[in-house]
């Protein structure tokens, strides 16, 4: 087993294709395939499951990836320290529900590290896709919430997909509304107060079960509801239609302007927000930095962290 083979393997996982990895490595595709087959022969198991639809990591391949990344990262540190080698292009990705604190932490991480070159991804996406991204290691970290309603379902999903959930903080439900909305003048609102206003929620595609809803109290009947796919559209509709959505109460005026505010919602519910990662991997240095930046942003917004 060689370091080069490990780097080849990591590159294939990154691109999800031997052909694409070969192009990026400036190798002939047969040469790269041969190197991986030799590695698999030495290991005694298949790293990838091959089909007409392409390749996917095997269960053992997923576990092996965590160790391979650690070895490659440690070797890079040695090369930088003793051979004065230029750091490689940094790669890191996060998949998350639509939370401003997750975006702020991402920004802070990039500013703090100050890399000259990097390839980062921040995917604000559907709940089911977050779980799939982390399961398949497309993202190192996923950010989701648990509630009294979805906890049992999600814990089962986490077990089945070899994921570990680490809680960050607990919030009570708030609504986001325009400053022009009459509800913005209230110290808190009751669920019945919301009836005249359009309810805005993030659509979940084919996996539109109530359990996957990004908004708590997903089973409550609404006379008016609109599904959207991105945060900018949702905020525009909050303003244009005097609508509301339900979230944690953390909102960033720096990112989203000052036209949207949060108001406590009088409901006996909770939102436990945390991050998921694959149980067979360890956090990279960037993953650790990102988690720390999230914690700072959360505390700056007045929330206590879960120990």
Explain the layout of strands and helices.
Blueprint: H1 3-15, H2 18-25, H3 29-43, E1 48-51, E2 54-57, H4 59-82, E3 90-96, H5 100-113, E4 118-124, H6 127-135, E5 141-146, H7 151-160, E6 163-171, E7 174-178, E8 189-190, E9 199-202, E10 225-228, H8 231-240, E11 244-247, H9 253-256, E12 260-266, E13 271-278, H10 285-300
Parallel strand pairs: 3-4, 3-5, 8-12, 9-10
Antiparallel strand pairs: 1-2, 5-13, 6-13, 7-11, 7-12
Helix pairs in contact: 1-2, 1-4, 2-3, 5-10
Structure, briefly:
The protein has 10 helices and 13 strands.
Question: What report would you give on this structure?
Answer:
There is one protein chain. With 307 residues, the chain is of the alpha/beta class. The chain has three domains: 80 residues, Arc Repressor Mutant, subunit A, CATH 1.10.10.10; 98 residues, 3-Layer(aba) Sandwich (D-Maltodextrin-Binding Protein, domain 2); 101 residues, D-Maltodextrin-Binding Protein, domain 2 (3-Layer(aba) Sandwich), CATH 3.40.190. The strands form four sheets. A five-stranded mixed beta sheet has the order 4-3-5-13-6, with helices on both faces. Strands 8-12-7-11 form a four-stranded mixed beta sheet. The longest helix has 24 residues. 32% of the residues are buried.
């Amino acid at each position: 087993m060689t370091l080069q083979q490990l780097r080849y393997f990591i590159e294939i996982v990154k691109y999800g294709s031997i052909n694409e990895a070969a192009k990026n490595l400036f190798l002939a595709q047969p040469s790269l395939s041969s190197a991986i087959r030799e590695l698999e022969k030495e290991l005694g198991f298949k790293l990838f499951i091959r089909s007409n639809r392409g390749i996917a990591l095997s269960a053992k391949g997923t576990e092996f990836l965590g160790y391979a990344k650690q070895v490659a990262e440690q070797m890079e540190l040695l090369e930088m320290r003793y051979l004065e080698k230029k750091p490689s292009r940094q790669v890191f990705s996060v998949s998350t529900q639509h939370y401003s604190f997750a975006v702020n932490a991402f920004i802070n991480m990039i500013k703090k590290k100050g890399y000259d070159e990097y390839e980062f991804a921040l995917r604000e996406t559907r709940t089911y896709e977050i779980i799939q991204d982390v399961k398949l290691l497309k993202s190192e970290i996923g950010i989701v919430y648990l509630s009294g309603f979805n906890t049992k379902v999600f814990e089962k999903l986490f077990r089945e997909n070899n994921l570990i959930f680490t809680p960050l903080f607990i919030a009570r439900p708030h609504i986001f509304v325009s400053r022009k909305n009459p509800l913005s003048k209230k110290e808190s609102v009751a669920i019945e107060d919301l009836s005249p206003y359009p309810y805005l929620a993030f659509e979940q595609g084919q996996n539109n079960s109530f359990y996957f809803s990004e908004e708590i109290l997903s089973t409550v009947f609404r006379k008016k509801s609109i599904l959207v796919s991105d945060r900018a559209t949702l905020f525009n509709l909050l303003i244009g239609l005097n609508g509301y959505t339900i979230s944690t109460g953390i909102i960033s005026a720096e990112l989203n302007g000052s036209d949207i505010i949060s108001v406590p919602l009088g409901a006996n519910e909770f939102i436990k927000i945390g991050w998921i990662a694959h149980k067979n991997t360890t956090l990279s240095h960037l993953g650790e930095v990102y988690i720390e930046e999230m914690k700072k942003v959360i505390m700056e917004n007045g929330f206590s962290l879960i120990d």
